[in-house]
Structure formats: C-alpha cells, structure tokens
Amino acid sequence: MEGKFYITTPIYYVNDVPHIGHAYTTVAADILARFNRMMGRSVFFLTGTDEHGQKVFKAAQAAGLSAHDHTDKLCENFKNLWTRLDITHDAFIRTTDKGHIEIVQELLQRLYDKGEIVKRRYEGWYCTHDERFWTDKDVKDRNCPDCGRAVEKIEEENYFFLMSKYHEALVNHIKNNPGCIMPESRRNEVLGFLRTNALGDLCISRPHQRLSWGVPMPFDKGYVTYVWFDALINYYSATLYKSENKAWWPASVHLVGKDILTTHAVFWSTMLMALEMPLPERLFAHGWWTMEGQKMSKSVGNVVDPFELIQRFGADALRYFLFREVPFGLDGDYSEGALIGRINTDLANDLGNLASRSFAMLNKYFDGKTPNPDAVEIELKTLSEGILLKIDALLEELAFQKALDEIWALVTYLNKYIDTNKPWVLAKSKETEGKLRTVMYSLMEGLRFVSLYLYPFMPKSMAALYRGLTDGDIANVNLKAVSTWGLLGKDKQTGEIGQLFPRIDTEAKPQPPKAAAATSEKDEGQMNITDIIDIADFAKVKLKTARVLAAEAVKGSNKLIRLTVDSGEQRQVVAGIGKHYTPEQLVGKTVVIVANLKPAKLMGVESQGMVLAASDSEGLALITLDREIPPGAQVK
Ligand code: MSP
User: Fold this and answer.
1) How far does residue 65's CA lie from ligand 1's centre (Å)?
2) Running DSSP on this structure, what letter comes out for residue 377?
C-alpha cells in the first residue's frame, strides 16, 4: 500500500492498573499516528490488551467472576485512559477476541504442518508467577531470576517451536537492516546476545491442567498456547479482522519498552521467518520511567497514576512533558516538580503567553482581524516552513524531543519578534502603521504554524489555537498543503482561545487568620481550618485495598499483629490492633492500607504499610469495604 503507516503499541496485561509507562508508549504511538495522518499517509494505529494467562484466571476467581466477565471489566480501564489522553487508535484488540484466537490457531496449525513445531519431553524450572521455564544456568538457589519467587522442577511433554534454526537468518536480517531495531544501542544489544548465546528452541505450550485460560493448541486439545506466542500474533491478526483493509502487514513500527525487546526481536522475528512472512520494518525499544529515582512498583506504592495527572494538569501537559523531558529511548525520571516546571515555563510562559499576548494585541489594534501585511518577513517565513521537513525526518527516527526543539525554535523566535518590534510602540504613530500590520500578521501566521506542528503532541489545546486563528478544524488538514507562509490571509476575523495553559500555583497557601485557629477547641474528629490540606498533599498518600492472607501476634507484644496481605502484591504490615482483634478474626478480611509509607520496624518486625482504623471510646473499628473489591484497588 502506497504511503501506509502501521503502528502498534504492546498489548497491555489486562490485570495491570494502567500507569504512566503504558501512557508513555501509547501517547508516542498517537503522536506518530496523528503526524502521519496529517502528512496524508494511510494510518492504522493498533493498541489493545493481553488477556490470557493463569494470573488473570486466578484474579477472576478471587473476584468471583468468570474470566470473560473479569477481562471485559478490566479492559475498560485501558479504554478509559485512552479516551482521557485523546488517543486516536484505529483498533483495540483483545487476545480473547474470537477473531484473534482463530488466527493464532491457524498459524499454529500452519507451523505444525510445516514441521516447525514438534513435541518433546522437557525438564526445566518453572516459575508459576511468571508462567515461564528457566534452565539450570538461570536459576540460582531455586529462585526465579526475574521475580525472585521459588521455582519448581517440572518434567513434562510440551510443544516446541524450532527457533534455533533461525539463528543465522536473524543475525543476517538485523545486520542487513540497520533501522530494524532502534535505538542503535538496543540493536547492538540484540546482536551481542545472539553472538554469545546459541538460540534454543522455544517451548510454546502449557498443559491444559496447569494453564487453562489460553488458546488451545489446534492439534492437541490437552495443551494451550504460551501467552507470548498468542500475544505477539495480535500485530498480524488485527490486520485481518480489525480492519476493512487487510493489507497493513508488515508493521511500520512496533513500539515496545526495553524489557520486552527480546520477545519481539527474537521470538516474533523468528516466528515470522518460519511463517515465511515479512518482518516488521522497525522495532523501537524505549526506556523506563522511574519515580524520583526509584523503580516504580506496586508494592512500594510509588506508581505514577496517569488519571490523576490528567485530572490535575490536563492531558496535553502530560503528553508534552513525557516527550519533552527525556529523549525517547533513554530512561527518564518522573517528579512532580519537573512536570510543573515544564508546564509553567514552556507551556504557560513561552507558548501560552505568546498566544494570549498576540491575540490581545490583534484585538486592540485591529479588532481581532488579521491585517494586510506590508511585507513578507523572509526569515520568519523560512524558519516556519522549514520545520516541516525537519520534523518529518526526526519523527521518522522517533526523535520526539529533537522535533520539539525545532518547533520551540519558532516559539522562541516569535517571542523575541514581539520584544524587538514592540507593537505597542508601532501603534503610537501613523508612520509605523504599515510595520504594525506586518508584525501582527506575521505573529498570527507564525502561531498558525506552531499550532499545526504541535498538534500531534497537544491535540486539544492546539486545535483550540488553530480554530481561534482560522475557524477551521485542524484534525482534517493536510500538513503539506497548509504549511505555506501567507495562507492565513488578511481580514480574517479571529476568535477566542481562552487560557491555553494555566500556570500551576506552587506558592504556599496563605495562612488562615490566627483567631480561627486560636478559638477552636479542637477535639478529635473536628476539623480545624489549619488542618486543611491541598489535594496535591492528599494525592501523595496511596491508599489501597488489601486482603489479609495470614495474621499472627508479634512475640512479646500484646498490641502488635503481623499481617501478611495481598495488596496487588504480597507484603507484610504490622498493626497495633491486638487489643481489639484476634489474628483469626482478621484472616480473609479486606482492609485499607497506606501503601506508600516508608517501611519501619516495630518491635524488630518490618512493617511495609499501615492498616487504617477508626477509634472511639469503645475501641477500634477497621476500615473495610461495603462490597467485594479485588486486593490492590486504589482508594481515593
Ligand atoms: N503483555 C506484554 C506485552 C505483549 S506485546 C505482544 C506486556 N505488558 S505490560 O503491560 O507489562 O507492559 C507493557 C509496556 O509497558 C511494556 O512496553 C513496558 O516496557 C511498559 N512499561 C512498564 N513499566 C514502565 C515504566 N515504568 N516506564 C516505561 N514503560 C514501562 O509486557
């Protein structure tokens, strides 16, 4: 297909709570999809959820739901996030779709018939949590090298994909196609891995009794397909049953995080080779976000919640921050200070002010109508028009940050242009009227280019800016057709743009009047005005539901109870509730814990959180829920 652009995100594990890492990949894909659409290319943008596997099955059981109902519910979390982030995917695939399952089975059968899949006796170390096998070499002290949990020795018959056959072909493919794995460092990493490791064959089945929630092997109903084998095929299956035009394969870009590079670069590539299908044109592995220097993890409770950020700062600000702050491909560190800094400096000051000043001056000097310029500002015209080719090339390399640098050069130029030409001085004299017309026209025309180029990054605000300038709908423009200087035209009545990017107030809140605090007789439970906290302070506290799995009194204490809880992940919490509850009363209860409290030792026992309870003269009452909610759910 001429000028086609097919882009994918990984399909996200449906039982994960959507976090900033998921948002990162999907926004990257959205920026590229929007930009390529604007360039007049035919775009197919695919995202979705990975829904098979024993973990999902167990979580469904724990929630008292069928696996189907459970995944129907959970995939909405991702769909909601994509709506909130203004993601324009063309299709959303779920691996439990009938259409997908049929294609996975068809491909498995094809490989089996070709002799690419064989049955073998197998012995290995199995990690139930990760649902994967490890070799003797991988396993230290009988623990999983990935999650650290105990592994068990399993001997059984399984189906193997003869991946080892493709070692040399894969090396040649990567060597002959320099852009097929990016960034360069990741390509070298895969080549290095292939140089030092002989590719083995891949175990692609699990006995049905151990893993029931999966795609049955078409040639042996006693087995289901290994989740990754099922999941990777989504990129191809969606092109057949999720789109009218079935000619999208191969993908132009698969976007993945660095942790899942091998499954894509090695498993997926060799699967396609065995199927004699073309390989994706590009695989791009991006880096990971940490939270103030720490790895994000559910158990620490420091996972950045994108819903919360969107609510507080807006989707555009978050989208901009993620791609402005860190070069795509490297790891990045999230901090609220950095996000607010970007919003206040780049968005509110540089861009928001530029737009509001320009519109205000146009209203004042020309009743909001674009004037007829006396001359063409050649330097500004060349800069504005020239950006298109540059960002086209940079986005082809997924260099989002550099593309933003190029666009920001125009924002900076326009701000300087105002300061140098001082329209308010030009407006004072009849003699400079011609110059004022040129300056105001050029400013508005420059802003039109800014809105066009920034639209893929910040669709909502840039659509508003473009509408204010042209009364047109930016979503339907062809960038090549409209990136010519002068198309704004004279005598155009401009509209309202409102405040594009409000400043985030980081100043301390004013102190309440002293008298209020002094006169209040504070008893417990009565709120004093000085106790009021900002929503931002509250948002720092991560509350979660946790199911008590085990409980025992801490030796030597009549108050402390050591609880083992499931809060999405297993952890230990020590609670001072021993005078009010026996350990037996606690097991099976779903309580609420503070999940991001710094771990502390109580009578020598580490507590990784705090259980919430209310108290009165009669004693304590644990905070519980009035209906069943799975452990690990956020309490807000
Ligand atoms: N289901 C598999 C993918 C199958 S694709 C055929 C999977 N899912 S996932 O939900 O665990 O992860 C999806 C993506 O989120 C991965 O690309 C991963 O790199 C990314 N991230 C998870 N945590 C992240 C950060 N902290 N930062 C950036 N991305 C991160 O793996």
Assistant:
1) 25
2) -
pLDDT, residue 24, reads: 97
- Compute CA distances 85 → 12, 325, 464, 578, whole Å: 16, 18, 16, 46
Q: How far is CA 589 from CA 274, 562, 584, 635, in A?
A: 51, 14, 10, 16
Nearest to residue 633, comparing CAs of 549, 560, 550, 542?
542
How confident is residue 550, by pLDDT bands cut at 50, 70 and 90? confident
pLDDT, tens digit (0-9, with 9 covering 90-100), for 234-272:
999 999 999 988 899 999 999 999 999 999 999 999 999
| Helix ranges restricted to H, 197-268 | 227-232, 234-241, 261-262
Q: Measuring from atom 5 of ligand 1, which residue has the nearest CA?
A: 10
Handedness of CA 260, 265, 269, 270 (dihedral sign): negative
CA distances from 59 to 64, 186, 229, 554 (A): 9, 35, 22, 30
User: Which residue's CA is the closest to the ligand 1 atom numbered 21?
Assistant: 21
CA distances from 332 to 546, 562, 635 (A): 30, 37, 27
Return the structure tokens found at 553: 């009194």
Q: Is 591 helix (H, G, I), strand (E, B) or coil?
A: strand
Ligand 1 center–CA 22 separation, angstroms: 6
Q: What residues contact residue 166 under an 8 Å CB cut-off, 6+ apart?
A: 199, 269, 270, 273, 274
Top mutation candidate among 47, 74, 82, 260 for ligand 1, by most atoms within 8 Å of CB: 260
Q: Write the residue with the smallest CA distance to atom 19 of ligand 1.
A: 257
Count CB atoms within 10 A of the CB of residue 558. 8
Say how far apart CA 564 and CA 281 lie, in whole Å: 48
Answer whether 547 contacts ligand 1 (Cβ < 6 A): no
Residue with CA closest to ligand 1 atom 9: 12
470-475 long-range Cβ contacts below 8 angstroms, 24+ apart: 471/495
Whole-prediction pTM value?
A: 0.80
Asked whether residue 525 carries a pLDDT value surpassing 60, the answer given is no
Ligand 1 pocket residue status of 260, Cβ below 6 Å: yes
Q: Point out the ligand 1 atom lying closest to the alpha carbon of residue 258.
A: 19
